[in-house]
Design goal:
mainly beta, Jelly Rolls, Lipocalin, 2 domains, eight-stranded antiparallel β-barrel, six-stranded antiparallel sheet, 25 strands, 9% helix, binds magnesium ion
Length: 372
Protein backbone atom coordinates (compact mmCIF):
# COMPACT_ATOMS: atom_id res chain seq x y z
CA UNK A 1 0.00 0.00 0.00
CA UNK A 2 1.30 3.42 -0.86
CA UNK A 3 1.75 5.76 2.11
CA UNK A 4 -0.21 8.97 2.29
CA UNK A 5 1.74 11.91 0.85
CA UNK A 6 2.97 14.44 3.38
CA UNK A 7 2.68 17.55 1.31
CA UNK A 8 -1.09 17.59 0.98
CA UNK A 9 -3.69 18.82 3.40
CA UNK A 10 -5.17 16.41 5.89
CA UNK A 11 -8.36 16.02 3.88
CA UNK A 12 -6.56 15.19 0.64
CA UNK A 13 -4.06 12.92 2.36
CA UNK A 14 -6.78 11.07 4.20
CA UNK A 15 -8.82 10.65 1.04
CA UNK A 16 -5.79 9.36 -0.83
CA UNK A 17 -4.96 6.99 1.99
CA UNK A 18 -8.43 5.50 2.15
CA UNK A 19 -8.84 5.39 -1.62
CA UNK A 20 -5.51 3.65 -2.16
CA UNK A 21 -6.40 1.19 0.60
CA UNK A 22 -9.71 0.34 -1.05
CA UNK A 23 -8.11 0.03 -4.51
CA UNK A 24 -5.39 -2.21 -3.11
CA UNK A 25 -7.99 -4.39 -1.40
CA UNK A 26 -10.08 -4.58 -4.57
CA UNK A 27 -7.04 -5.40 -6.69
CA UNK A 28 -6.15 -8.13 -4.22
CA UNK A 29 -9.57 -9.69 -4.45
CA UNK A 30 -9.64 -9.48 -8.22
CA UNK A 31 -6.18 -10.98 -8.54
CA UNK A 32 -6.82 -13.80 -6.09
CA UNK A 33 -8.66 -16.11 -8.49
CA UNK A 34 -6.01 -16.18 -11.27
CA UNK A 35 -3.24 -16.51 -8.68
CA UNK A 36 -4.94 -19.54 -7.19
CA UNK A 37 -5.16 -21.27 -10.54
CA UNK A 38 -1.36 -21.13 -10.70
CA UNK A 39 -0.83 -22.69 -7.29
CA UNK A 40 0.66 -26.17 -7.35
CA UNK A 41 2.92 -28.30 -5.24
CA UNK A 42 4.66 -29.51 -8.40
CA UNK A 43 3.90 -33.12 -7.48
CA UNK A 44 1.14 -35.53 -8.33
CA UNK A 45 -0.48 -37.20 -5.33
CA UNK A 46 1.40 -39.98 -3.56
CA UNK A 47 4.52 -39.91 -5.75
CA UNK A 48 6.99 -42.31 -4.09
CA UNK A 49 9.87 -40.30 -5.61
CA UNK A 50 8.92 -37.31 -3.46
CA UNK A 51 11.56 -36.85 -0.77
CA UNK A 52 10.61 -38.15 2.65
CA UNK A 53 10.88 -35.65 5.51
CA UNK A 54 13.86 -36.00 7.83
CA UNK A 55 13.25 -37.80 11.11
CA UNK A 56 13.45 -35.58 14.19
CA UNK A 57 13.22 -36.90 17.71
CA UNK A 58 10.66 -34.91 19.68
CA UNK A 59 11.51 -33.39 23.04
CA UNK A 60 10.20 -34.73 26.31
CA UNK A 61 6.41 -34.87 26.36
CA UNK A 62 4.53 -32.06 28.09
CA UNK A 63 1.15 -33.74 27.57
CA UNK A 64 -1.63 -33.46 28.40
CA UNK A 65 -1.74 -29.73 27.67
CA UNK A 66 -4.35 -28.06 29.83
CA UNK A 67 -6.75 -25.87 27.81
CA UNK A 68 -6.61 -22.10 28.32
CA UNK A 69 -9.61 -20.36 29.90
CA UNK A 70 -11.12 -19.18 26.60
CA UNK A 71 -10.97 -22.59 24.90
CA UNK A 72 -14.01 -24.56 23.82
CA UNK A 73 -13.36 -28.06 25.14
CA UNK A 74 -14.55 -30.69 22.70
CA UNK A 75 -13.32 -33.69 24.64
CA UNK A 76 -11.92 -33.89 28.17
CA UNK A 77 -12.27 -37.63 28.67
CA UNK A 78 -15.67 -37.54 30.33
CA UNK A 79 -18.28 -37.12 27.58
CA UNK A 80 -18.88 -37.44 23.85
CA UNK A 81 -21.67 -34.85 23.91
CA UNK A 82 -19.73 -32.47 21.65
CA UNK A 83 -19.55 -35.13 18.90
CA UNK A 84 -21.91 -36.82 16.50
CA UNK A 85 -21.76 -39.21 13.57
CA UNK A 86 -21.94 -38.26 9.87
CA UNK A 87 -24.99 -36.18 8.88
CA UNK A 88 -25.99 -35.74 12.51
CA UNK A 89 -26.46 -39.44 13.15
CA UNK A 90 -25.61 -41.19 16.40
CA UNK A 91 -21.90 -41.39 17.14
CA UNK A 92 -20.44 -44.88 17.10
CA UNK A 93 -17.40 -44.09 19.20
CA UNK A 94 -16.64 -45.01 22.81
CA UNK A 95 -14.64 -43.66 25.71
CA UNK A 96 -12.03 -46.03 27.04
CA UNK A 97 -9.50 -45.07 29.72
CA UNK A 98 -10.28 -41.39 29.18
CA UNK A 99 -9.74 -41.52 25.41
CA UNK A 100 -12.24 -41.59 22.56
CA UNK A 101 -11.97 -44.08 19.72
CA UNK A 102 -14.25 -45.50 17.02
CA UNK A 103 -15.88 -48.86 17.53
CA UNK A 104 -15.52 -51.19 14.55
CA UNK A 105 -16.86 -49.47 11.43
CA UNK A 106 -17.91 -46.58 13.65
CA UNK A 107 -17.51 -43.96 10.93
CA UNK A 108 -16.20 -40.44 11.28
CA UNK A 109 -16.82 -38.31 14.37
CA UNK A 110 -17.85 -34.70 13.76
CA UNK A 111 -18.00 -31.87 16.26
CA UNK A 112 -21.60 -30.81 16.88
CA UNK A 113 -20.48 -27.20 16.77
CA UNK A 114 -19.19 -25.76 13.50
CA UNK A 115 -15.98 -23.76 13.31
CA UNK A 116 -14.21 -21.47 10.86
CA UNK A 117 -10.84 -19.99 11.83
CA UNK A 118 -9.47 -21.82 14.86
CA UNK A 119 -6.51 -22.75 16.97
CA UNK A 120 -6.96 -26.47 17.60
CA UNK A 121 -5.18 -28.72 20.06
CA UNK A 122 -5.65 -32.47 20.09
CA UNK A 123 -3.74 -35.45 21.38
CA UNK A 124 -3.75 -38.81 19.68
CA UNK A 125 -2.09 -42.18 20.00
CA UNK A 126 -1.68 -44.85 17.36
CA UNK A 127 -2.30 -48.45 18.48
CA UNK A 128 0.34 -49.90 20.78
CA UNK A 129 0.02 -53.21 18.95
CA UNK A 130 1.59 -52.60 15.54
CA UNK A 131 -0.51 -54.00 12.72
CA UNK A 132 -0.32 -53.34 9.01
CA UNK A 133 2.09 -51.07 7.17
CA UNK A 134 2.18 -47.83 5.22
CA UNK A 135 -1.32 -46.28 5.08
CA UNK A 136 -2.79 -49.31 6.84
CA UNK A 137 -1.00 -48.64 10.13
CA UNK A 138 -2.57 -46.27 12.65
CA UNK A 139 -4.41 -44.24 10.04
CA UNK A 140 -6.84 -41.53 11.07
CA UNK A 141 -6.95 -37.79 10.48
CA UNK A 142 -8.39 -34.51 11.60
CA UNK A 143 -10.53 -32.65 9.08
CA UNK A 144 -10.61 -28.86 9.34
CA UNK A 145 -13.98 -27.39 8.31
CA UNK A 146 -14.78 -31.02 7.36
CA UNK A 147 -12.62 -30.51 4.25
CA UNK A 148 -8.87 -30.46 4.79
CA UNK A 149 -7.22 -33.49 6.36
CA UNK A 150 -4.19 -33.21 8.59
CA UNK A 151 -3.14 -36.82 8.33
CA UNK A 152 -2.79 -39.01 11.40
CA UNK A 153 -0.67 -42.11 10.86
CA UNK A 154 1.74 -44.27 12.78
CA UNK A 155 4.77 -42.82 10.99
CA UNK A 156 7.31 -44.23 13.42
CA UNK A 157 9.58 -46.35 11.22
CA UNK A 158 6.70 -46.90 8.79
CA UNK A 159 7.60 -45.79 5.26
CA UNK A 160 4.81 -44.47 3.08
CA UNK A 161 4.47 -41.75 0.46
CA UNK A 162 5.64 -38.34 1.68
CA UNK A 163 2.30 -36.60 1.27
CA UNK A 164 0.55 -39.28 3.36
CA UNK A 165 2.80 -39.23 6.43
CA UNK A 166 1.64 -38.15 9.86
CA UNK A 167 1.23 -34.40 9.73
CA UNK A 168 0.84 -34.17 5.98
CA UNK A 169 -1.94 -32.14 4.44
CA UNK A 170 -3.05 -35.37 2.87
CA UNK A 171 -2.16 -35.77 -0.78
CA UNK A 172 -0.74 -32.25 -1.01
CA UNK A 173 1.92 -31.16 1.48
CA UNK A 174 4.31 -33.54 3.32
CA UNK A 175 5.30 -32.42 6.82
CA UNK A 176 8.54 -30.48 7.07
CA UNK A 177 9.94 -33.22 9.34
CA UNK A 178 8.80 -36.55 10.75
CA UNK A 179 8.63 -36.00 14.50
CA UNK A 180 6.51 -39.05 15.35
CA UNK A 181 6.56 -40.77 18.72
CA UNK A 182 6.48 -44.53 19.10
CA UNK A 183 3.22 -46.49 18.73
CA UNK A 184 0.96 -46.16 21.75
CA UNK A 185 2.55 -42.92 22.99
CA UNK A 186 0.48 -39.76 23.18
CA UNK A 187 1.28 -37.16 20.55
CA UNK A 188 -0.05 -33.66 19.97
CA UNK A 189 -1.16 -31.55 17.05
CA UNK A 190 -1.48 -27.83 17.46
CA UNK A 191 -3.12 -26.36 14.39
CA UNK A 192 -3.71 -22.78 13.30
CA UNK A 193 -6.39 -22.86 10.65
CA UNK A 194 -7.48 -19.94 8.51
CA UNK A 195 -10.53 -20.65 6.40
CA UNK A 196 -10.74 -19.84 2.72
CA UNK A 197 -12.27 -16.45 1.94
CA UNK A 198 -15.11 -16.02 -0.48
CA UNK A 199 -16.45 -12.74 -1.84
CA UNK A 200 -19.97 -11.67 -0.85
CA UNK A 201 -21.31 -13.11 -4.11
CA UNK A 202 -19.78 -16.50 -3.24
CA UNK A 203 -16.82 -16.27 -5.63
CA UNK A 204 -13.59 -17.80 -4.35
CA UNK A 205 -11.13 -15.13 -3.20
CA UNK A 206 -8.37 -16.69 -1.10
CA UNK A 207 -7.33 -20.26 -0.19
CA UNK A 208 -7.34 -21.66 3.33
CA UNK A 209 -4.09 -21.65 5.27
CA UNK A 210 -2.84 -24.26 7.70
CA UNK A 211 -0.02 -24.24 10.21
CA UNK A 212 0.68 -27.35 12.29
CA UNK A 213 3.00 -28.19 15.17
CA UNK A 214 3.46 -31.91 15.80
CA UNK A 215 4.75 -32.68 19.29
CA UNK A 216 5.69 -29.00 19.53
CA UNK A 217 7.66 -28.95 16.26
CA UNK A 218 6.61 -26.91 13.22
CA UNK A 219 5.67 -29.27 10.40
CA UNK A 220 3.28 -27.18 8.25
CA UNK A 221 4.12 -23.52 7.82
CA UNK A 222 1.10 -21.55 6.65
CA UNK A 223 0.51 -23.81 3.63
CA UNK A 224 -2.36 -23.16 1.24
CA UNK A 225 -4.33 -26.29 0.34
CA UNK A 226 -4.98 -26.60 -3.38
CA UNK A 227 -8.53 -27.68 -2.62
CA UNK A 228 -10.40 -29.99 -0.26
CA UNK A 229 -8.73 -33.30 0.57
CA UNK A 230 -9.66 -35.94 -1.95
CA UNK A 231 -8.26 -39.35 -2.68
CA UNK A 232 -6.69 -39.97 -6.11
CA UNK A 233 -8.22 -36.83 -7.56
CA UNK A 234 -8.40 -33.09 -7.15
CA UNK A 235 -11.44 -30.96 -6.43
CA UNK A 236 -11.59 -27.18 -6.51
CA UNK A 237 -12.64 -25.01 -3.59
CA UNK A 238 -16.35 -24.65 -3.00
CA UNK A 239 -18.11 -22.43 -0.50
CA UNK A 240 -19.79 -24.82 1.92
CA UNK A 241 -20.37 -22.30 4.67
CA UNK A 242 -18.35 -20.34 7.21
CA UNK A 243 -18.62 -22.70 10.18
CA UNK A 244 -18.36 -26.43 9.61
CA UNK A 245 -17.66 -29.36 11.95
CA UNK A 246 -14.19 -30.58 12.77
CA UNK A 247 -13.99 -34.23 11.71
CA UNK A 248 -12.01 -37.17 13.09
CA UNK A 249 -11.44 -39.94 10.60
CA UNK A 250 -12.29 -43.59 11.16
CA UNK A 251 -9.91 -45.41 8.83
CA UNK A 252 -10.42 -48.80 10.43
CA UNK A 253 -7.53 -48.47 12.86
CA UNK A 254 -8.16 -47.97 16.60
CA UNK A 255 -6.44 -44.60 16.91
CA UNK A 256 -7.31 -42.91 20.21
CA UNK A 257 -7.93 -39.24 20.95
CA UNK A 258 -7.95 -37.13 24.11
CA UNK A 259 -7.78 -33.54 25.29
CA UNK A 260 -9.33 -31.85 22.25
CA UNK A 261 -9.98 -28.11 22.47
CA UNK A 262 -10.28 -25.17 20.14
CA UNK A 263 -10.02 -21.42 20.38
CA UNK A 264 -12.08 -19.58 17.80
CA UNK A 265 -10.09 -16.93 15.97
CA UNK A 266 -11.66 -13.78 14.56
CA UNK A 267 -11.92 -14.14 10.79
CA UNK A 268 -9.44 -12.10 8.81
CA UNK A 269 -10.93 -9.14 7.01
CA UNK A 270 -9.41 -6.44 4.89
CA UNK A 271 -11.08 -3.21 5.91
CA UNK A 272 -9.94 0.39 5.74
CA UNK A 273 -9.42 1.97 9.16
CA UNK A 274 -12.49 3.65 10.61
CA UNK A 275 -10.54 6.86 11.07
CA UNK A 276 -7.27 8.23 9.71
CA UNK A 277 -4.20 6.53 11.11
CA UNK A 278 -2.41 9.81 11.77
CA UNK A 279 -4.14 12.91 10.43
CA UNK A 280 -1.90 15.47 8.78
CA UNK A 281 -3.21 18.85 9.77
CA UNK A 282 -0.70 21.36 8.49
CA UNK A 283 2.58 21.82 6.65
CA UNK A 284 4.95 23.96 8.75
CA UNK A 285 6.94 26.59 6.90
CA UNK A 286 10.73 26.82 6.92
CA UNK A 287 10.87 29.28 9.79
CA UNK A 288 8.56 27.20 11.94
CA UNK A 289 10.68 24.10 11.29
CA UNK A 290 13.95 25.95 11.99
CA UNK A 291 12.53 27.00 15.35
CA UNK A 292 12.38 23.33 16.42
CA UNK A 293 15.69 21.87 15.16
CA UNK A 294 18.40 21.02 17.64
CA UNK A 295 19.31 19.04 20.75
CA UNK A 296 17.05 18.68 23.79
CA UNK A 297 18.47 17.41 27.12
CA UNK A 298 16.03 15.19 28.91
CA UNK A 299 15.26 15.65 32.58
CA UNK A 300 16.82 12.70 34.35
CA UNK A 301 19.36 12.04 31.58
CA UNK A 302 19.49 11.29 27.89
CA UNK A 303 18.74 13.58 25.00
CA UNK A 304 16.52 14.00 21.98
CA UNK A 305 17.44 15.35 18.56
CA UNK A 306 15.13 17.04 16.08
CA UNK A 307 16.67 16.80 12.62
CA UNK A 308 15.68 17.87 9.11
CA UNK A 309 16.68 15.52 6.31
CA UNK A 310 15.50 15.37 2.69
CA UNK A 311 12.73 17.84 3.42
CA UNK A 312 11.35 15.77 6.32
CA UNK A 313 11.54 16.17 10.08
CA UNK A 314 12.85 13.36 12.26
CA UNK A 315 12.91 12.74 16.00
CA UNK A 316 15.46 10.47 17.63
CA UNK A 317 16.51 9.49 21.10
CA UNK A 318 19.70 7.87 19.90
CA UNK A 319 17.96 4.89 18.27
CA UNK A 320 15.84 4.86 15.13
CA UNK A 321 15.07 8.07 13.20
CA UNK A 322 11.31 8.54 13.61
CA UNK A 323 9.58 10.68 11.02
CA UNK A 324 7.54 13.50 12.56
CA UNK A 325 4.03 14.15 11.24
CA UNK A 326 2.92 17.75 11.84
CA UNK A 327 -0.42 18.25 13.54
CA UNK A 328 0.28 21.93 14.20
CA UNK A 329 3.42 24.16 14.18
CA UNK A 330 4.16 22.90 17.71
CA UNK A 331 2.56 19.43 17.88
CA UNK A 332 3.78 16.35 16.00
CA UNK A 333 2.89 12.68 15.78
CA UNK A 334 5.22 9.94 14.56
CA UNK A 335 4.87 8.06 11.26
CA UNK A 336 4.76 4.52 12.62
CA UNK A 337 4.48 4.81 16.39
CA UNK A 338 1.75 6.25 18.61
CA UNK A 339 3.93 9.01 20.08
CA UNK A 340 3.27 12.72 20.51
CA UNK A 341 5.79 15.56 20.64
CA UNK A 342 4.75 18.99 21.85
CA UNK A 343 7.08 22.00 21.70
CA UNK A 344 6.96 24.95 24.02
CA UNK A 345 8.06 28.04 22.12
CA UNK A 346 9.35 31.42 23.25
CA UNK A 347 7.43 34.54 22.23
CA UNK A 348 9.80 35.20 19.30
CA UNK A 349 9.45 31.66 17.96
CA UNK A 350 12.31 29.26 18.81
CA UNK A 351 11.36 26.24 20.88
CA UNK A 352 12.51 26.19 24.48
CA UNK A 353 11.30 22.80 25.71
CA UNK A 354 9.56 19.73 24.41
CA UNK A 355 7.33 17.10 25.93
CA UNK A 356 7.40 13.57 24.46
CA UNK A 357 4.59 11.13 25.24
CA UNK A 358 4.81 7.48 24.28
CA UNK A 359 3.80 4.13 25.70
CA UNK A 360 2.11 5.67 28.74
CA UNK A 361 5.08 7.75 29.90
CA UNK A 362 5.89 11.42 29.41
CA UNK A 363 9.35 12.96 29.29
CA UNK A 364 10.31 16.62 29.25
CA UNK A 365 13.47 18.03 27.73
CA UNK A 366 15.11 21.44 27.40
CA UNK A 367 16.62 22.67 24.19
CA UNK A 368 20.39 23.08 24.72
CA UNK A 369 21.60 23.41 21.17
CA UNK A 370 20.08 24.93 18.06
CA UNK A 371 21.07 23.53 14.69
CA UNK A 372 20.51 25.31 11.38
MG1 LIG B 1 -6.14 -40.45 7.27
Amino acid sequence: MKPAPQSTSMTLATRFFLTSFKLTSLAFLLSAQPAFSQLATGWKQHDMKRQLPAVVEPGQSNLPLTPPSDAIVLFDGSSLDAWQGPEGKKLNWIIRDGAMEPIESGGYAYSVQGFGDVQLHLEWASPLKVQGKSQGRGNSGVFLQSQFEVQILDSFENPTYADGQAGSIYGQYPPLVNVSRKPGQWQSYDVIYRAAIYQPDGEFAQPARITVLHNGVLIQDNVRPLGPTSWMQHHPYSNRGEKLPIGLQDHGNPVRFRNIWVRELPPEKILPPSEPYDPIRIEPNDKQIANLLGTYDRKGGGRYEVIRKDGKLFFTQGGPMMEMIPHSPTEFGLRFTAGLIEFETTPDGPAKNLRFEMGGSTNEATRTKQTP
